[in-house]
Amino acid sequence: MKPSKESIVTKIWNEEPEPDNPFAARACYCSGFDVYGDLLGKISWIQYLWLLIRLEPPEPAQARMLEALAVGLANPGPREPSVHAAMCAGVGGSTRASALIAALSVGAGNLGGARDVFAAMGNWADCGTDLAAWRERIRNPPVDERDDVWPSFEHPPGFDPNGAGCPTPVRQLLNHLTVLDPGPVLPWLQQNREVLQHEADAPLAFSGVAAAALHALGFTPEQGEMLFLLLRLPGAAAHALEQKMNWAKFPFFGNGLRLTDDPGPSSPDHE
Fold it and tell me: Which is more confident, 263 or 164?
């Protein structure tokens, strides 16, 4: 009895079956390109990632810009909440998958996370390089359509409400991407960064640079949200693996908490 032919509807992927096994692929095509026959060994991971999301290969300049952004986002560092979450999972003995899920869950939010990028890309789509439009958007932000899922923003997306000044790595990434961007987006952001920071009363964050770069590359806010989550996972994985269930070497609170203003022992009446 032959299995019934199922119809899998997708523009992304197509498979030709092996002659002796209809459930095994003889050839796999991504957006029409033979992955293992033509692409393997000829394109980079970033180029393939672009092809999967956009269904067309990137131009060389586009691939260089996305690769530079990927390097800049790959490891937010152990103090970043999503990486810290993965580290906690690692040191607690959770599975490796749990560590990555923890990083994705914590890194999905609207404080420097993927939802922050999504909202900032929406601002780019609406405001472009119109400074007056940006001022109005920052002063009167729109209501999130999914406020049933996400809490309301307490800061302009793409900016760090807890920051004092724009960190050097953020400026370095923006400077590098500006050189790679032939269009107006990143050069405009670099030129107007301090004006926008003053309007937002907060410094530009990595999420803001990522949103501008992904918008300049033509990704939709939904695509940018996904890519931001994906591109920050390598650092979370590396830091989670480093823990190896050793609380004594966990980089946070290794020596315990020390009070600098200890009021002394409590009186018996307050014990």
Answer: 164
One-letter identity of residue 48? Y
State the DSSP H helix or E strand holding residue 97, giving kind and residue range, or none if neither.
helix 96-106
What 8-state DSSP symbol labels residue 159? B
Tell the burial category of 162 from Cβ atoms under 10 Å away from its Cβ (0-12, 13-18, 19+): exposed
Any idea what DSSP says for residue 36?
I
b/e map of 74-112 (b: 16 or more CB within 10 Å)? Answer: ebbebebebbbbbbbbbbeebeeebbbebbbebbbebbb
- Strands, sheet with 33-34, edge to edge from the N-terminal-most edge strand: 13-18, 21-30, 33-34
- Mean per-residue pLDDT, 72-79: 94
pTM above threshold 0.70: yes
H/E segment holding residue 33: strand 33-34
Output the CA angle 190-205-186, nearest 5 degrees: 25
